[in-house]
Amino acid sequence: MEVSSMIPCKGWTSWQGLLLTASILTCWHLSTTDHITIKSVPSQVANGDNVLLLVNKLPEDLLTFAWFKGESGMNLGIAIYAPDRDLIMQGPGYSGRETVYRNGSLLIQNVNEKDTGLYTLQTLNEHGDVLSVTTMRLHVYSSISLCCNLLTSSQIMIQPVPRYPAEGEGVVLQVHNLPEDLLNFVWYKSKYGTPVIKIVEYSRDMNSVFWWPTYRGRGMVYYNGSLMLQNVTEKDAGTYTLEVLKKNSKIEKASVEFNVKKYVTQPFVRVTDTTVEGRRSVTFTCISPDTDISIRWIFNNRSLHHLERVTLSPTKCGLRIDSVGREDAGEYKCEVTNGVSLKTSLPVWWP
């Protein structure tokens, strides 16, 4: 990223002035955004490693964001970035080892134990008002024991981080043991016998990166071979292969597979009353367009346990109560989850 000394937003006269404004307005304009998350890639970091603070769910229409070392230490600002203008202003906490990306992620190279601590991402509007604050803790170890490190092989290895990204999140295909004597490398994708789809190619001699149209603008590639994909969907699930051409003309390959978890939609409950031979029954049906989900029934804000008169369908989407009476009157809801997200239906009442 080209570093500019220009001021990203109108009215910003200095880093200190902006931070003073931000520190005051945090108390009045703070909007907690649950969807913005930060993950450390890799999760365990030792002295001398590079670490990516991977940001997910940064709003696309955001005007400005800022990184700080610490939770409220305004004198430890690392950088402020305006994505719409691709402009960056470095702060007093910038050490020359940090790189900020358009999706909000922060790369710190050659970390040491002094880098341990809290890191804060703030999003701001054009007036410098703080819209959200997201904090994570980074711990840098003096060393990581080899007995706990599975990456002792000299072969290329790839890990998806996170292993099961949710739809709309980012994923890093983290590469370990990339050969030092490489000429270039290529990432491509294939799934279930479909034709190979090339993603990106890097040439070390020319120091150039070429993206194929399908992934242009959606990804980032790193010198260690790692690949980041942003805003993944179910179509991105599959097998990804890294092909490395070495100076001795030998080719090494490594592959990795990941699946994408989709956020579930809100279900709704349909109620059907039936009367057979004077015996009244009621059936509740939890209707959801999602698959591979678990369903839980809630009666008067408590889990509805299996009773003698209660029958659940094999997938639990159907709930029938026989010989219903006054004790069954109340509020019914169903809850669906796929392990990534959870949604509860609006309540229905019986009778």
Topology:
Elements: H1 15-29, E1 37-41, E2 45-46, E3 51-56, E4 64-69, E5 77-82, E6 87-90, E7 98-100, E8 106-108, E9 117-124, E10 130-138, E11 140-141, E12 157-161, E13 171-176, E14 182-190, E15 197-203, E16 208-211, E17 219-221, E18 227-229, E19 238-246, E20 251-258, E21 268-276, E22 279-287, E23 294-299, E24 302-303, E25 310-312, E26 318-322, E27 330-337, E28 342-344, E29 348-350
Parallel strand pairs: 2-11
Antiparallel strand pairs: 1-3, 3-8, 4-5, 4-9, 5-6, 7-8, 9-10, 12-13, 13-18, 14-15, 14-19, 15-16, 17-18, 19-20, 21-22, 22-26, 23-24, 23-27, 25-26, 27-28, 27-29
Can you put this structure into words, describing what you see?
The protein has three domains: 127 residues, Immunoglobulins (Immunoglobulin-like, Sandwich); 108 residues, Immunoglobulins (Immunoglobulin-like, Sandwich), CATH 2.60.40.10; 83 residues, Immunoglobulins (Immunoglobulin-like). The N terminus is likely disordered. With 351 residues, the protein is mainly β. It is 4% helix and 44% strand. The termini are far apart.
Offer a few descriptive terms.
5-stranded antiparallel beta sheet; Immunoglobulin-like; single chain; disordered N terminus; mainly beta; elongated; 3 domains
The major beta sheet can be summarized as:
5 strands, antiparallel
Specify the CATH class of the largest domain: Mainly Beta
Sequence of secondary-structure elements:
HEEEEEEEEEEEEEEEEEEEEEEEEEEEEE
What is the averaged pLDDT score? 80
Strand content: 35-45%
The global form is: elongated
Strand order of the largest sheet: 6-5-4-9-10
Number of domains: 3
Number of strands: 29
Q: What is the overall number of helices?
A: 1
Name the helicity range: under 10%
Unreliable residue runs: 1-14, 17-34, 145-152
Structural class: mainly beta
CATH architecture of the largest domain: Sandwich
